[in-house]
Amino acid sequence: MKTHQIEIQKFKAASNTNNGLVMFKVDALVSPKQPLDGIEPSSVISLTEANARVLLALLKTQIAEFDAKKPKSRHGRHG
User: Fold this and answer.
1) What pLDDT sits at residue 75?
2) Left (φ > 0), alpha (ψ -120 to 50) or beta: where does 55 sit?
């Protein structure tokens, strides 16, 4: 497995697909990451607090769009 250091510079857009994927368009610095002895290899994503807040807002929007596409329950109060 290849491992990378990924530093998010800017979130540009977010969208989702019908099959449940959320996709982000970002500016990022990506560089190979050497695995450390004795530690399971993995890629690392880093971002500033400001970008973390943008990510949170984008995720909330995308999840709301998923929820809006789900059919309303036919159970509940009768009216």
Assistant:
1) 58
2) alpha
